[in-house]
TrEMBL record:
Transmembrane is among the record's keywords: no
Pfam families linked: ManC_GMP_beta-helix, MannoseP_isomer, NTP_transferase
Residue intervals of the Nucleotidyl transferase domain: 25-307
Key words, A-Z: GTP-binding, Isomerase, Nucleotide-binding, Nucleotidyltransferase, Transferase
Keyword Nucleotidyltransferase recorded: yes
Protein family according to the UniProt entry: Belongs to the mannose-6-phosphate isomerase type 2 family.
Protein name: mannose-1-phosphate guanylyltransferase
Database matches in NCBIfam families: GMP_PMI
Domain Mannose-6-phosphate isomerase type II C-terminal: 372-486
Enzyme class: transferase
One Gene Ontology term of the molecular function aspect: GTP binding
EC number from the UniProt entry: 2.7.7.13
Length: 491
C-alpha cells in the first residue's frame, strides 16, 4: 500500500512539473512609454529602467515566469533593442531566452502570432503566457494563485485574460465585463464584453460595478488555439506572419523574422484582432497589484511615500511639499512649497507637471518631436552592444564624449569623412587599430586618429574601458560613420 501511495504522488508530481514546463512566457517588449518621458524614450524605453526596485521592469517580468517554474521566455523586441534585452536578461540570470526580432512594428497581434508559430513548432499544445515587458505586479503570491486558475482554463482550450479589480475610476485602462462562471473551472468567467478606455463619468460607473475589471493585457492560451483563432479572424496575419517565421534566420543569439512577409501583416492589437471576437474568451479576476505604469501618477501610487505623501528617487530635497513625485537621475533636485506635482530631472531634460495632468506628458513629447528635438526620442547617453557613449560638450566644430567599452567588446572597423578624433584613456586599456597599425593605449595615454583613417577600438582587458573622445571637424553627426567590418552586423 505504501508503495502504491508513493507511486501515485510521484506520478502526480511528474504531471504537475510537465504541465508547468509546458507554459512558455511570451514577453512583448515594444512601445516607447512616452508618458514616462523624460526617463522613458524611444531609444531606451521604460521596460529597461529600474523604476520600482533594483531590477528593471523587463527583468521583473522575466523572473515571474521563472518563479512559477515555467519554461524560458520568448521575448519579442525590435532590432535596435536586441543587445539591451539580451544583456538585461543575462544580468537577471536568464540565459536561454529566445529573443525574436521584429523587422517593423506591427502591434501586438502579429507579434504574438510570431511567438505562437515558433512555440507550436515544438508543441502546439504548449501554453503561452502573454504579457507586456513593462507592467508592475506587487503581490506575487496572489499572482501565482491566479496563474493556476488561468492554467486550468487554458488547458481546456480557452483564451484567458486577466482582469484586475479596479481600485479607482481609471480612464487610462480598458475594461472587461465578466459573465457567468465557467463550468468546471472555478474562479474563471466568461467574457461578456470588452470596454474601450472610458471618459471620466463612464469610468466612475464601471468602477462601481462588481462585474467590471481593468484589462491587464495578459493572456493564457495554447499556441495552437491562438493560431486557429488567428487563422479564422485574421487570415492575413496567419499567412504573412507564418511565412515570416518560416523564412526567419538566426543572427548571433537572435531570431530575425523575415521582413517582407512580416511587413505585409495588418497593424492591429490582439484585443481587436482576437480577444473581442473569439468565443473562447475567459477572464480570471485578479487582485495582485497590477499596473501598466502608464504615467508618473501611476508610479507615484506604487512608490513608498513619506509622512507628507511624497515619493522620491535619487538626489532630492523637499521642504513643505505634499503628495509629490520627485525623481532625479543626475543633479540635485529641490522642491519647496508645492502640492501634487511631478518633477523629473535627467541629465538633459526637466519635466514638471501637476499630478492630475500626468497622462498629458505625451502631448509635450509630441510637441518636442514636431520641433525636431532629439530629446523627444533619445537620451544623451546612447547604449550600444559594446557599451555606451554620452556627449559632454557640443560646439560648432568640436564635440567631447565619454565612451565606455565593456570587457572583451569592440567597436566596428570604421572611418569618417568629416571629422578627426583624439582619444584619451582614463580607465582600463585600449587596443586601437589605426590603418595598418595596432596600438595598445593605457590609462593616461592618448592617440590621434586623423580624418579618413580606418580605425577600431577594442577593450582587451577585464575591467570596463573608459576614454574621453574629442571630435573636430565641420560635421560631427553620428551618420558620418562608414562601417567596414562589424561583429554586431550593423550596416
Amino acid at each position: 500500500m505504501a508503495a502504491d501511495v508513493r507511486g501515485y504522488f510521484i506520478n502526480w508530481w511528474k504531471n504537475i512539473c510537465s504541465m508547468v514546463q509546458n507554459v512558455v512566457p511570451v514577453i512583448l517588449s515594444g512601445g516607447s512609454g512616452s508618458r514616462l518621458w523624460p526617463v522613458s524614450r524611444k531609444s531606451y524605453p521604460k521596460q529597461f529602467w529600474p523604476l520600482l526596485s533594483d531590477k528593471t521592469l523587463i527583468q521583473e517580468t522575466a523572473l515571474r515566469g521563472r518563479a512559477a517554474g515555467f519554461a524560458d521566455p520568448v521575448v519579442i523586441c525590435n532590432s535596435e533593442h536586441r543587445f539591451i534585452v539580451a544583456e538585461q536578461l543575462r544580468d537577471a540570470g536568464i540565459h536561454k531566452a529566445k529573443i525574436v526580432l521584429e523587422p517593423v512594428g506591427r502591434n501586438s497581434a502579429p507579434a504574438i502570432a510570431a511567438a505562437a508559430f515558433m512555440v507550436a513548432e515544438q508543441d502546439p499544445d504548449a501554453i503561452l503566457w502573454i504579457m507586456a515587458a513593462d507592467a508592475a505586479i506587487t503581490d506575487e503570491t496572489a499572482l501565482q494563485h491566479s496563474l493556476k486558475d488561468a492554467l486550468k482554463a487554458a488547458e481546456a482550450g480557452r483564451i484567458v485574460t486577466f482582469g484586475m479589480k479596479p481600485t479607482r475610476p481609471e480612464t487610462g485602462y480598458g475594461y472587461i465585463e465578466a459573465g457567468a462562471e465557467l463550468a468546471g473551472v472555478q474562479g474563471v468567467y466568461e467574457v461578456s464584453r470588452f470596454i474601450e478606455k472610458p471618459q471620466a463619468a463612464k469610468a466612475e460607473e464601471l468602477f462601481q460595478s462588481e462585474k467590471c475589471l481593468w484589462n491587464s493585457g495578459m493572456f493564457f492560451a495554447k499556441a495552437g488555439v491562438f493560431l486557429k483563432e488567428t487563422e479564422q479572424f485574421e487570415p492575413r496575419i496567419y499567412e504573412t506572419v507564418g511565412q515570416s517565421v518560416r523564412n526567419r534566420h538566426t543572427d548571433m543569439d537572435f531570431e530575425r523574422l523575415e521582413e517582407e512577409s512580416f511587413s505585409a501583416a495588418p497593424d492591429i492589437s490582439v484585443d481587436y484582432a482576437i480577444a473581442e471576437r473569439t468565443k473562447l474568451a475567459a477572464v480570471v479576476p485578479g487582485n495582485f497589484g497590477w499596473s501598466d505604469i502608464g504615467s508618473w501618477d501611476a508610479l507615484w501610487d506604487l512608490t513608498p511615500k513619506d509622512a507628507e505623501g511624497n515619493a522620491t528617487f535619487g538626489d532630492v530635497f523637499l521642504d513643505d511639499a505634499r503628495n509629490c513625485y520627485v525623481r532625479s537621475d543626475g543633479i540635485i533636485a529641490t522642491v519647496a512649497g508645492v502640492d501634487d506635482l511631478i518633477v523629473v530631472v535627467t541629465p538633459d531634460a526637466v519635466m514638471v507637471s501637476h499630478r492630475d495632468r500626468a497622462q498629458d506628458v505625451k502631448h509635450m513629447v509630441n510637441r518636442l518631436a514636431q520641433a525636431g528635438r532629439k530629446e523627444a526620442v533619445a537620451h544623451n547617453r546612447c547604449y550600444r552592444p559594446w557599451g555606451f557613449y554620452e556627449s559632454l560638450i557640443q560646439a560648432d566644430r568640436f564635440q567631447v564624449k565619454r565612451i565606455v567599452v565593456e570587457p572583451g567588446a569592440k567597436l566596428s572597423l570604421q572611418k569618417h569623412f568629416h571629422r578627426a578624433e583624439h582619444w584619451v584613456v582614463v580607465g582600463g586599456t585600449a587596443m586601437v587599430t589605426r590603418d595598418e597599425d595596432l596600438v595598445m593605449v593605457r590609462e593616461n595615454e592618448s592617440i590621434y586618429l586623423p580624418l579618413g583613417c580606418v580605425h577600431r577600438l577594442e577593450n582587451p582587458g577585464k575591467i570596463p574601458l573608459t576614454l574621453i573622445e574629442v571630435q573636430s571637424g565641420p560635421y560631427l553627426g553620428e551618420d558620418d560613420i562608414v562601417r567596414i567590418e562589424d561583429v554586431y552586423a550593423r550596416s
